[in-house]
Structures are given as C-alpha cells and as structure tokens.
Amino acid sequence: MCAKKSKRGDEESDEDFVKLELEGFSPEKDDRDGIIQMLKQLLPKTANLRFACLADYIIGREKIGTVVKYSDYEADGDDDEDIVFSITSLISLFEPDITQYPVIADLRKFLETFINSSKSSNSDASAIVKVITGASSEKPALLINERYVNLPVEVAEKSVSSLLDEINVLPENEKPTHIIVLTRAIKSPDSSELIYIQPEMESVRKFALATSETNVVTPTVDDENETITFVTMVVDVSSLPEIVDNIATQST
After folding, report:
1. I need a labelling partner for 64 at 20 to 30 A (CA). Which of 27, 35, 164, 207 fits?
2. Are 22 and 68 in contact (CB under 8 A)?
C-alpha cells in the first residue's frame, strides 16, 4: 500500500510515494493505545465514554476485527512499529453484550441520545433509534472502521471484506442483523454538499435504510470552531457484499 508524501524544495516541488508495507492482524493487547486513538477519532467529542474499555472489548473479540500495522511489526521492536494505522471491527449493541459490558450499554445510550439530537427528519432518526434499541428484535452492531486520513480506500476495502467473512462464520446468536455506520463529513464552502472524510462512505449511503445528520462544533488547534457533520446510517447485513464490491470498485 502506498501513502502519498509531499516534499517541497526552495526552487521547485515534487511528489514522492513512500512505500508502506502494511498488513492486517487480529487486534491484541499491544494495540490498545492505537485503538483508543482511532476510537477518539471516530466518535464525537461529546461522547463521554470509556474508550479504554471499548478498546479492551474490541481486543477481546477473538473471532472478529482487523488492525492494520507495519508488516514487519513482530520482527522490529521500534516504537514506531506500534502504530495502528487502521481498525475495523464490530461492537454488538444487543444481548448478551449489553448486559455483560456496561460500556456497551453506555455506548448504545449515547448513540440513541446523539441521533435524537440530529437535524434529520424525525422518521429517519426514529427508525435508526428503533434499530439501535432492538425495538423489533433487531440485532444491531456498530461498525468501527477508522484509519489515518491519508491512507487509501484500499485499506477499507480489504478490512471490510475480511469483516464480512468473519461475520459469516459467527454463531447464529452472535450475528447482527443490521450495521450502524457512523462517519464524518464537512460542508463544502461553496454549497451545502457534504464532503466525506472517508470518501467511500458517500456511496455507502445509498444502501442505507435510514440516515441522520448531526452537527458537532469543535475547536481546532487555531482556537477556531469547526463544524463536523456526523452521518449515521443503518444498513441491513445482507447489503454488505454489495457494499464491499462498491468500495472495491473505488479502490481500483
């Protein structure tokens, strides 16, 4: 996989491609800090959640999940090799996890409150909340799919494809029926059009059964306020193969 790096000289500028040998691994204890960082990047600043507990939950799910790191991670002891470039997993928002893990109950409650505060139509927000709470026996799971911003769509395609395979072999009582997708976007300065931070999420939206948008104002390093639009979608698990194919098309 390649990440683009720009180098600028005194008289001219050129662009290099720095080769990053990355590989997917099952999450483990050494990845805890990196996963926490990814969770803080994904979830709104208003989420008063125990991110360390969420990271422990993700690590504890031995049957599911991928972290992307340097391919020679196990062979090199440098601190830089501990970097988690991407995390893809699921957090089950249904029983028995809701009862066994208080942090999951907290997460579900936060999502319910957050979506109810959205500027979207009441019908869409209500539909998402009903799925999250399992009002009609749905078994929802929150998709955790976060990466460094400058990494290509290919990372998401490979990780989500692996996730689909992992879901397919889960015991029936652990398989979700719906996936909750939470992603970020900003408004175009010239229009009200959303620019997705993860570009592939724009196409995922067409598979959504319901969608809500919630604006969150956060301070920047320059002490200026920035408005991030959090887009929440609910998709049927049966749509995942087509979603993966769609993302794969964008990564080629």
Report:
1. 207
2. yes
- Per the prediction, the chain carries an average pLDDT of 86
The helix/strand/coil state of 28 is: coil
Residue 151 has a pLDDT of: 84
Report how far residue 82's alpha carbon sits from residue 101's, in angstroms, rounded to the nearest whole number: 27
Q: Is 185:198 a contact under the CB 8 Å cutoff?
A: no
Q: Do the Cβ atoms of 193 and 187 come closer than 8 Å?
A: yes
What is the number of residues in the chain?
252
Task: Please give the structure tokens belonging to residue 216.
Answer: 């969150």
C-beta neighbour count of 187 within 10 angstroms: 14
For residue 248, count other CB atoms closer than 10 A to its CB: 17
pLDDT tens digit string along 156-215?
888 999 999 999 999 999 999 999 999 999 988 777 789 999 999 999 999 999 999 999
Domain extents in the chain: 2-251
Q: What is the Cβ-side half-sphere exposure of residue 227, based on CA atoms within 13 angstroms?
A: 10
**Structure token digits, residue 137:** 């026996």
Query: Is-contact 188 195, C-beta < 8 A?
Result: yes
SS3 assignment, position 63 = coil
In the structure encoding, which two tokens stand for residue 99, read together? Answer: 């009862």
Q: Give the predicted TM-score (pTM) of the model.
A: 0.87
As its CATH architecture, domain 2-251 has 3-Layer(aba) Sandwich (3.40)
List b or e across 146-157, with b for residues whose CB sees 16 or more CB atoms inside 10 angstroms.
bbeeebebbbbb
